[in-house]
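does this look right to u?? zinc ion version
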Amino acid sequence: MEKVYQYIDENLNRFIEELFVLLRQPSISARWEGVEECSRLLVGMMEKIGIKPRILPMGGKRNPPLVYGEILNPEARRTLLIYGHFDVQPPEPLEAWDSPPFEPTIRNGRIYGRGSADNKGQFFAHFKAIEAVLKTIGRMPINVKFLLDPEEEVGSPSLNGFCKANKDIFAADMALNSDGPMDTSGRPRLSFGNRGVLYVEVNARGANTDLHSGNFGGPIPNPAWRLVEFLSTLRNPDGTVAIEGFYDNIVPPTPKEREMMARIPFDEKKFMEKYGLKKFTPPEDVSFMEKLMFRPTLNIAGFTSGYGGPGSKTVLPCRATLKMDMRVVVNQDPEDIYQKFLRHVRKHGFDDLEVMMLNIYHPSRTSVDHPLAPKFTEAIRRGFQQEPVLVPSGGGSFPGAAIRNILDIPILSIPYGNHDENNHAPNENLVIDCFKNGIRTTAALFFELAE
Ligand SMILES: [Zn+2]
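got this back:
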């Protein structure tokens, strides 16, 4: 390992220059700008390292180019599948950036640029780990496959279907995802799962135009009241969700998962201060972490109707819109929750509301007792020289379920981004030390998994 680590140290500046080439190529999936160019750029980079790349068009109108890669050793016993995504979020507002988003710049030990941390810099660390092993040891101790998603920032709409139809290509013993930030304490983290999400929009309509609330008010129904009535059916007085079957199939934390949650560094008082909070949601006997990782939510993400500007406007609105996201946990199925939501709408007599499902991600979790998990922990220790924070499940959502549930490969996440990476925001950045320790961790993982 010493030889590999020395190679990483000696070549780090060149690695960063190469990453800059990738960061200069915009790949904004939301408006399909540069995504195809970026896939071709990756193919060239992978070939140069010795990874065999292939662009796999995922079909449909846009035919997004999934970038697949493999480096196989006939003597290797295990195969690791690495998930990453090469599309990025739109960079706007441009004026809020201290340096242009697609002109990567180093300041104070950080690489600034769109995609530096989310996710180009993080999966590029895996590329460079392979290069470092090949240049020093001469061959890979395990097989590695890459699945680089071109559409993660728009919800990976093609991934589930593509994985279903192409299971064999991606076959592996274990999968790794490096995305998102490290722990706020500055320590690295190893995460075993994620919540899923179901996003719905509900519309209520009144008259066919906004009306004067005096000249028309009284006989004319107000769609905002209709949504308020609907909302009031969704929750019990104790804060639980009143949709029938909403809590079905939830798997409570195991004793080991509880132990992990208890060890996550978290200062409740400081957290409340930071966000200006006086209390958390009930029930009080369920911990912050358990609510975040093991319980589903029903969130009002937006409620729009009538007039919300300064001063008064006496309007009787013709339309009201509600946006709701539901974070779901293992073993809930967001499509099943959507059916239960629709049943609730009908059961309570709200057939006049228009309900739409906007997007879903399935939840995913890998057992904290997975026999290969300690190898990931050890790789992080060697790479970062720090003890990782073990997280049974992240609160957010990502396409990991395609790998966990469709490809049936256990997946673990090791984020290489600093906790203040500003992903999706101006001045996105990756701390160079995190990038370097990430390369070290991936290289160590190859050897851990070979044993
Ligand atoms: Zn992102």
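DSSP finds twelve helices and 19 strands in the chain. idk if thats expected tbh
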